[in-house]
Amino acid sequence: MITRITIQGLVQGVGFRPFIYLLAKKMGIKGTVANRNNGVIIHAALSDEKTNLFIKRILEEHPPVAFIHHIDIEKIEWKIDYSNFEIIKSRSESDEVTQVAPDIAVCPDCLRDRERQKHRLSYPFINCTHCGPRFSIIKDLPYDRANTTMETFGMCPDCGKEYMDIYDRRFHAQPIACNQCGPVYYAVYGNIEYRDYSEILSLTAQLLNKGKVIAAKGIGGYHLICDATNEYAVNSLRRIKHRDTKPFAVMFQNKERAKEYIYMNKAEEDCLTSWRRPIVLLKQRKRPASGVNSSMNTLGCMLPYMPIHYDWFEQIDTPALVMTSGNLSDLPIAVTPEEAERQFGGKVDLILHHNRDIHNRVDDSVIHVCGGQPCLIRRSRGFVPEPFFADTDVEGLLAFGAEKVNTFALGKADTVIQSQYIGDLKNWETLAFYTESLERFQHLFRFVPKQLVCDLHPDYMSSREAEKMALQHNLPLLKIQHHHAHAAACMLEYGLDEPVVAVIWDGTGLGDDNKAWGGEFLLCDRKGYIRLSHLEYAPMPGGDKASEEPWRMAVSYLHHFGLAIPRTLIERIGKAKVDTLITMIDKGINTPYTSGAGRLFDAFASLLGLCDLSTRQAEAPALLEQTATDNFSDRYPIDLSTDPVTTQSLFEGVLNDLRKDISIGLIAAKIHNTLAYLILGKSKQFLKNADATKVVISGGCFQNKRLTEQLQSLFSREGIPLYVPSKIPCNDSGIAVGQITIAAKQREEMKISRNNEN
After folding, report:
1. Residue ranges of the chain assigned to CATH 3.30.420.360
2. Predicted confidence band of residue 94 (pLDDT cuts 50, 70, 90)
3. CA count, 13 A, side-chain hemisphere, 403
């Protein structure tokens, strides 16, 4: 009798088989371990007592990056007399798949090896089973070198020996490499080709010290890089990037140097220093160059995660580098030398390439901490393609996501696998990245779609792609209301399968009445929803133009409520433009109606003189949040008895404070406080009258850290369970996960209904 142990989770590419081997040796267990499509399989002759101890030690001692989702144990009638314990060849046996590891920051052991191993002295692509590229280089499963972009690099005898040595940290480390056989950097500068790493390092460091801008190929794409403390360099980068005001991310030499510029608590420090190495949004203590994040009091920070990052900081004079995505305008991050040369050639002072291909492009992830809880804003490098585990069958469901900050997702057995951050599907290049990634995910995860799911909005490019695939492959297509998907994504994350009150505030999403929704109070479960209430509809003159020109919404709300438009606003915009806009509203010319909370924040930002014209998405709400004074609790009166919810008294209060010359920071704080109490008050009303006890919040407006933390505090004081998206972004990046959640529940209900009929 043999015991078969199947371990599923993040157990490939993280040193799991060597760990099992060494543990089995210590315990005197004889048998085999192997990678399979669906996980790690162990066969061994074990008593029940020894099996329990073995499993206990696996759960307690596994490699730090590994994650175990499920362990299955079964007895099989095999008559095998194992003489030892060994690792056997990986096999592809079915369409089941295991988790694919995200890309992992270089580990301390590898950094030390660069100083003492002869064949790896200063080697910039060092890695082991605990670190290095994973998702960015994988092409197929199982995770073996032949199925990665490392297949073109033949191992030298030294690496081959380590690769085969079970006691070596690089045993079966698929990207294993060294100075003798691995990838190399190369660059051309002044018509001279550089391939020696020490020369490349010296040259790039000199350029950075002189305030120059360089592009460099990383793990998941190129970065544009300059000295974050040099105003000239930062302004040069802005011109190259065609980015007016959007803040740049900054890489610090280490957390100690970072603390000179920012404040951070323990939870934020844990995020910053984790092996995932995301960009963490932190409160600023001291500004680097003003052009890095003008008008903002937060700074996007990250720490080195590739050896070259550490090497640069050894040679440059600055403690901080701007490290921003290597793309121009709204294009996807560049991943090939050809793309980089096409976008940056003649614009930057040097383009640094390397010859390890990037198969899956992945941007840096972005996270912030709300009330001690890490909340993802952009889920990409270091997180993707880790799945979310569902409590229902999601097999065959393919969700296409939304239009902005898009991701897609697919269902495999009981896991939802979300794509990396794609971006806004409004240009050909990003759409091509989207369709390419769709194809690659389906291949990698052996996925065959059975049902497609998309947003209710027919004009989203994601919806059009879904409709095209549905026609081509004769597949059923389910269209999901945008805000229900937001709620369902959060419900899946927390395992909620019951009615909840959902507060979904964002910029826009098509509603059942063909109006633009976005300030919604829903009673929903995973299957359906009832719209309990919403923010009062207001004219949106110019349609989408209103989100680019917040002054339009300021004028619109004031005119809608019959309130006088301040002279200062008219002077800034021009009386003729204001009058024309009012005429548009009165005559209904290109003026749809919206309940979007995002447009409400836009209006207040313009009214306070913070942002009349947006140069980036959500700039106005971000500035309103940044301006709000801390530790100020006053708020405006607001009527919670109306349906829909009117904000007229809020505008009246703001206008009154402006006439009194109350500081803009205090007014911004009062606006936030009022909206927080509005959400609390309405939620309490709905919980009292509905069959629900819990509240879910989601939507892009809850990227507002101040508002979210206020809600966490208020709901905690009231003893009301509040669920805030954490692992799934609250913005439209989370929509695809919600779409799959709803489709799975509706499919499950249909099966139950058919069974009952039979």
Report:
1. 387-475
2. low
3. 16
* pLDDT tens, position by position, 238-266: 999 988 889 999 999 999 999 999 999 99
Burial of 257 (0-12, 13-18, 19+ CB in 10 A): middle
The H-or-E segment that residue 278 falls in is none
**Taking each helix axis from N to C terminus, what angle separates 705-718 and 664-689, rounded to the nearest 10 degrees?**
40
Q: Where in the chain is the domain with CATH 3.30.420.40?
A: 504-723
Give the 3-state secondary structure of residue 157: helix
Q: CA angle, 687 as apex, 686 and 692 as ends, to 5°?
A: 120
Cα radius of gyration rounded to whole Å, the chain:
27
The CA-atom distances, in angstroms, between 441 and each of 26, 326, 444, 478 are: 39, 23, 5, 21
pLDDT value, residue 754: 85
Tokens read off for 182: 């691995």
Q: What is the per-residue pLDDT across 95-107, written as a single tens digit (0 to 9) for each?
A: 666 678 999 999 9
**Identity (one letter) of the amino acid at 410?**
L
| CATH node for 504-723 | 3.30.420.40
Residue-wise pLDDT for 511-524, tens only, equals: 999 999 999 999 99
Q: Report helix, strand or coil for 632.
A: coil
Nearest to 173 by CA among 117, 217, 110, 122: 110
- Residues 243 and 294: beta-carbon distance below 8 Å: no
Of the listed ranges 13-17, 490-494, 520-524, the one predicted with least confidence: 13-17
- Structurally, what CATH architecture does the domain formed by 2-87 represent? 2-Layer Sandwich (3.30)
Residues of the chain with CATH 3.90.870.10: 185-354
Tokens of 306: 């590739």
Tell me which amino acid residue 48 is: D
Q: For the whole model, what pTM was predicted? A: 0.95
**Contact call for residues 673 and 510 (beta carbons, < 8 A):** no
Architecture of domain 387-475: 2-Layer Sandwich (3.30)
Q: CATH 3.30.70.100 in the chain, residues?
A: 2-87
The single-letter DSSP state of residue 228 is T
Q: Write the CA distances from 191 to 185, 187, 188, 347, 397, integer angstroms.
A: 16, 10, 6, 16, 52
Return the CATH class of domain 185-354.
Answer: alpha beta
Q: What would the pLDDT profile of 179-206 be if each residue is shown by its tens digit?
A: 999 999 999 999 999 999 999 999 999 9
User: In this structure, how many other beta carbons lie within 10 angstroms of the beta carbon of residue 66?
Assistant: 21
